[in-house]
Amino acid sequence: MLSSHTLRKTTDNPRRSEEQTAVIHSMLAGLDPFFRLRPTIPARCVQAFFLVAEKEDMSISEYAKRGGLSATTMSRNLIDMGERDRNHEEGAGLVESHPNIMNRRESLYRLTPKGRALLAAITRALNPERKTAEQRINRILQRSKP
What angle do CA 128, 42, 80 make, to 5 degrees? Predict the structure, then answer.
């Protein structure tokens, strides 16, 4: 049986592989733009954002199915990520709905310009090598301008 001191020491300082540590750092870097936007953003709203970012112009029921959630829960999350939340207060402004021209009773969702900017910030945070390469390319292009 482990003593309380040994148990505390084990849980206070768990060993992580370099790969696990790198994944943790990447996840934190990827989530940071969300937290700067909304410090208390729910994880399911983040999931809804990424589902829309992955494939735009789908219905609530399609996103719910892809996310393993009920349509009611997905609807609430997408509303909160829109211009106004479910309490009619300012929403995140990251997604917007528009009517489905094939089925007027249904709305489809896509990222707003603000949502696209957030996705770009997340991409840069998760891919610093690309950011560095883009900066180098931009510097070269700036030098080559007359």
Answer: 105
pLDDT tens-digit readout, 13-22: 468 888 888 8
Which is nearest to 116 in space by CA: 95, 130, 91, 100? 95
Angle formed by the axes of helices 113-126 and 128-144, to 10°?
A: 110
Token pair 């900066």 in the structure block, residue: 135
Q: Which CATH number fits domain 20-144: 1.10.260.40, 1.10.10.10, 3.30.365.10, 3.40.50.150?
A: 1.10.10.10
Task: Please report the pLDDT score of residue 81 as a whole number.
Answer: 94
Compute the CA torsion angle 102, 104, 110, 112 (nearest 10 deg). Answer: 130
Note the Cα 118 to chain centre separation in Å: 8
Whether the per-residue pLDDT at 11 is higher than 60: the answer is no
The DSSP code for 87 is T
